[in-house]
Design a protein that fits this description.
about 675 residues; alpha+beta; six-stranded antiparallel sheet; five-stranded antiparallel sheet; 15 helices; hydrolase; PPM-type_phosphatase-like_dom
C-alpha cells in the first residue's frame, strides 16, 4: 500500500480528467446518510445504482467495470460507512467519482470518499499545544483497530491507495480503486461498446442475481493467492465475531453464493448449542431469509466428522414439517421458495478446529448446481483451517484480556474515601493491550483525622506488575494507619520492596543451583515503582493541609485560583532501587479554590510522533486553563487533552487524581467515610 498522503485535495489536479469529460457528463455521485445502523446497507445500494447508471451512459471508462471492481467498491463503501456510523455517529456524506489519469498511460479509477461531521478539536489558549497537525494522518501507519475499526485493514488490501483528511469539523476517509483493463478510445463508443455497457449495467444493477464465477481461476496460482490474502486479513484479529464476518466476505461470492458460520460456546460444555455467528449471501435481500431457514433447521454434523467437507442436503428438510416437504399437494409449481435457492443447490459443511478442539462449523452453498467442484471444496477446506487458527487466537486473547481485567479490578479499591473539605475526581483508563497494567490508586482514612491518597506506577506490566501492586497497596495502608509520617512510610516501603527483591533473587539462585548451574530465563522484572503519596488534614478555617512526597513519580501540580501553576513536591529516587535513602516530604496548604493535580507517566509521556504531552510544560498549560473549574470538570478536560494530543489511543495506562479544596469541612458524601468512584474501563 502506498504511503498515506498528508492531505488530499478534492479539487481537480493537473493531469486529471473527469472520466467522461470528452464523451459524456462529469461522473460524480453524492448522497447524505443518517448515522444509523441502516446507513451501510443504503450506501451499498447507492454505489451499485451509481455504477449501473454510469455504465448505461456508455462512458468509456465505465465499460471497464467488472464484477470484481463492483464488489470491491461495495465492500470498501460498507466498511467506511460502518466505521463512520460506529465511531462518529453523525450524518455521513458519501461521494463516488470516476477519474481519468492523463499520463504516459491512460488509466481510470473509482474514488470513494466518506465524510463524517466529527467535532473539531477545541482551541485552548493563544499558543498551540505541541501535537500533530489536525489535518494530517501519520504516513504509513494504520489506525489502531481497537479505536478506528479493523475494517480499514480490508480497505487497505482492496484499494490502490487510501488516506484520511481532517478539516474543521469534518473527517474524510477516501479510497482509490483502479478500473480494470481500460484504455480510452479516441472517439465516442461504438455500438459494440454500448452493448457491452448495457451488459455491465445489467450485471451491476442492484436487482437479485446469481453471481457468475469461473472456477478455473483456482489453479496452482489462484488458490495460493486467495489463501495468502485470507491469512493476511484474518491474522491479528482479536474478536471472533469479526473473524467470522471477514471469513463470510472472503467466501461470498468468490467461492460460494452463501455461507453461514456457527461458533461453539466456549466453556459451555457438550450440551451447549453453537451460536449462529454470521450469515452472508451474495444477494443482500437473501441474508435474512437464509438466516431464518438456518435457525429453523440447525446444522448438526456427525460426531466423527473431521475437517473435510461433509455434504449437507439443501434446502434443509425437517421431518414432520409439511411446509418443508417437496411437491406438496395444492401448491403451485411456480411457488416462491422459502429462501433464495431453497429448491435447488448444493451445500458443504466444514468443521472449524484448532489444536484438536472443535470451535464451530462453516456451511457454504451454491445455488442451481448439484455439487461443489472438488477443487473449490479443497480450497475451502484449506481456508477453514486458517479460519480455525484465527478463531483460536482470538479466543486466547479474549481469555487473557478477561483474566487481566478481573485481576486488575481485584488489585484496585472498589471504593475510595471522601475527604472533608475536598472534592475529588479520579480517572483511570487501563491500556487496551489485554494485560494487567502497573498503575494503581487509593484514598483512605487514617486515625487522627487524617486522609491519605496514593498514585503509583509499577515498572512493567503483566503478572510481575500485579505482584508488586498486590504488595504495595496493602503495605501503604498498614504503614499509614500505624501513624508513620509521609517520608517514613516511603522509607519502610522502600526497604520492604528491596527485601522482597532479595528473596526473589535468592529463590532464583536456588533454581539455578538445582538446574546444575545453568542460568534460567524466567522473564522476571525488577520490582521497583514510582509513587506519589500524600496526607491531608482538614483545617478549621477551611481548606486542608497537605504533606506529599514523590518517589520517581511525575510531580503533583498546584493550581491557584488566579491560574498560576507550580510543582508541589521535589523529585526523589524510585522505590525499590536504592537501599540507603531517606525520603523527604513537602508541606503546603490547599486553600479553598486551590486544586492539586496528580498524574502517572501515561499522561506526561503520552506521545505524538517525537513529541510528548508534557514537553514545554504542556500539562501545566492545560491545568492553568482549568482555574475556577470543579474537580470533575478539571479531570475531564485534562483527560480529553491527553486523548486529543495524538490520533492513536494511549498505549499506556492513564491515571489522574484531582483534589480541590472547598469552603466546607463536612464530608462530600452521606455514605460514611467511603464513596464509590467510577473508573473508566
Amino acid at each position: 500500500m502506498a504511503p498515506i498522503p498528508l492531505q488530499r485535495d478534492i479539487v481537480q489536479r493537473p493531469g486529471t480528467i473527469r472520466a467522461g469529460g470528452a464523451h459524456g457528463p462529469r461522473l460524480a455521485s453524492r448522497t447524505s446518510l443518517p448515522g444509523i445502523p441502516l446507513a451501510p446497507s443504503a450506501a451499498r445500494r447507492f454505489v451499485r445504482a451509481a455504477l449501473a447508471e454510469w455504465t448505461g451512459l456508455g462512458v468509456p471508462a465505465a465499460v471497464g467495470f467488472s464484477d470484481r471492481l463492483a464488489d470491491d467498491a461495495v465492500t470498501v463503501t460498507n466498511e467506511l460507512v460502518t466505521n463512520a456510523v460506529v465511531h462518529a455517529g453523525t450524518t455521513v456524506d458519501l461521494v463516488l467519482r470516476l477519474e481519468e489519469e492523463s499520463g504516459d498511460e491512460l488509466s481510470a479509477a473509482l474514488v470513494l470518499e466518506v465524510t463524517d461531521h466529527h467535532p473539531a478539536r477545541p482551541v485552548s489558549g493563544d499558543e498551540p499545544e505541541p501535537g500533530p497537525e489536525p489535518d494530517a494522518a501519520v504516513a504509513g501507519e494504520l489506525p489502531d483497530p481497537a479505536e478506528y475499526g479493523r475494517g480499514l485493514q480490508l480497505v487497505a488490501t482492496l484499494a490502490d491507495s487510501w488516506g484520511i483528511t481532517y478539516r474543521t469539523g469534518l473527517k474524510t476517509v477516501w479510497a482509490r480503486l483502479p478500473v480494470d483493463d481500460w484504455s480510452a478510445p479516441p472517439a465516442p463508443p461504438d455500438g459494440e461498446a454500448l452493448r457491452r455497457g448495457l451488459r455491465a449495467a445489467e450485471i451491476l444493477a442492484p436487482a437479485a442475481r446469481r453471481t457468475e464465477r469461473d472456477d478455473a481461476v483456482w489453479d496452482s496460482r489462484g488458490a495460493p493467492a486467495f489463501l495468502a490474502e485470507a491469512s493476511d486479513l484474518l491474522a491479528g484479529q482479536l474478536d471472533e465475531d469479526l473473524v467470522a464476518a471477514i471469513a463470510g466476505q472472503l467466501l461470498v461470492p468468490r467461492l460460494a453464493d452463501w455461507c453461514a458460520i456457527w461458533l461453539e460456546t466456549e466453556g459451555g460444555g457438550p450440551a451447549a448449542e453453537p451460536r449462529l455467528a454470521r450469515v452472508w449471501h451474495s444477494d443482500e435481500t437473501g441474508t435474512e431469509p437464509l438466516r431464518t431457514a438456518l435457525e429453523r433447521a440447525p446444522l448438526s454434523l456427525p460426531a466423527g466428522a473431521g475437517s473435510g467437507p461433509v455434504a449437507v442436503p439443501w434446502p434443509p428438510v425437517r421431518p414432520g414439517h409439511p411446509a418443508d416437504q417437496p411437491d406438496q399437494p395444492g401448491e403451485p409449481e411456480d411457488a416462491a421458495p422459502p429462501h433464495p435457492g431453497g429448491r435447488d443447490g448444493a451445500a458443504l459443511a466444514f468443521r472449524i478446529t484448532a489444536g484438536g478442539r472443535a470451535l464451530g462449523t462453516v456451511l457454504v452453498g451454491r445455488e442451481g448446481v448439484t455439487q461443489v467442484p472438488e477443487t473449490v471444496a479443497s480450497l475451502i477446506e484449506d481456508f477453514v483451517r486458517r479460519l480455525g487458527l484465527a478463531v483460536g487466537a482470538a479466543r486466547a486473547y479474549t481469555r487473557q484480556a478477561t483474566i487481566s481485567r478481573i485481576l486488575q479490578r481485584g488489585l484496585l479499591p472498589s471504593k475510595v474515601a471522601d475527604i472533608p473539605g475536598v472534592t475529588s475526581s479520579l480517572v483511570y483508563e487501563p491500556s487496551d493491550d489485554g494485560v494487567v497494567g502497573g498503575d494503581f490508586y487509593d484514598i483512605f482514612p487514617c486515625p487522627g483525622d487524617r486522609w491519605c491518597f496514593v498514585l503509583g506506577d509499577v515498572q512493567g506490566s503483566g503478572p510481575e506488575a500485579a505482584v508488586v501492586t498486590g504488595l504495595a497497596r496493602p503495605w501503604l495502608r498498614l504503614l499509614s494507619r500505624e501513624g508513620f509520617g509521609v517520608g517514613e512510610v516511603l522509607d519502610r516501603l522502600n526497604r520492604l520492596l528491596l527485601d522482597d527483591a532479595m528473596e526473589a533473587a535468592e529463590a532464583a539462585a536456588l533454581m539455578v543451583a538445582a538446574a546444575g548451574g545453568q542460568q534460567l530465563h524466567d522473564g522476571t522484572q525488577s520490582r521497583f515503582l514510582s509513587l506519589l503519596y500524600g496526607e491531608v488534614v482538614p483545617l478549621p478555617e477551611g481548606g486542608v493541609r497537605c504533606t506529599v512526597a514523590s518517589a520517581g513519580h511525575p510531580l503533583p501540580l498546584l493550581l491557584r485560583p488566579d491560574g498560576s501553576v507550580r510543582p508541589a513536591a521535589e523529585p526523589q529516587v524510585l522505590l525499590g532501587v536504592v537501599e540507603d535513602v531517606a525520603y523527604e516530604s513537602q508541606v503546603f496548604d490547599l486553600a479553598p479554590g486551590d486544586t492539586l493535580l496528580c498524574v502517572t507517566d501515561g499522561v506526561t509521556e503520552r506521545r505524538s510522533g517525537p513529541l510528548m504531552f508534557d514537553d514545554g510544560d504542556g500539562l501545566a498549560r492545560v491545568l492553568a486553563g482549568c482555574a475556577g473549574l470543579p474537580a470533575e470538570a478539571t479531570a475531564e478536560k485534562i483527560r480529553r487533552a491527553v486523548h486529543e494530543f495524538a490520533e492513536q489511543p494511549p498505549d499506556d495506562d492513564v491515571a489522574l487524581l484531582v483534589l480541590r479544596a472547598d469552603g466546607s469541612t463536612s464530608a462530600a458524601s452521606d455514605n460514611g467515610p467511603y464513596a464509590f468512584r467510577t473508573a473508566r474501563w
